[in-house]
Amino acid sequence: MGIFDMFGKRPGIDEGVERFHATAGAILLDVRTQQEYHQGHIPQSVNIPLDHLSELSHPKTTPLFVYCQSGARSSQAYSWLKQHGYGQVTDLGGIMGYHGALEQ
Which of 11, 45, 74, 80 is most buried by a 10 A CB count? Predict the structure, then answer.
């Protein structure tokens, strides 16, 4: 049994992006640095680096789908967002596993 089996599995990033597209009013949140974001990001994503999450101004009921480079920062962002009252947060992990087109 892996760690995600104990706490619920995180969807694959491709599946998670599909779920983002199917969720009304959702935000796809890239928590990497601005430099990483500009090197290539998932279309329709919004960049708020992990150390700037306190600047997020969306209602706490907004569905959030969070990703980073490898999955470590998205996990930290998930925990921070949940601790600060965001109820609908999905950790998608790292963009390294994404198979779709990227924007620059």
Answer: 74
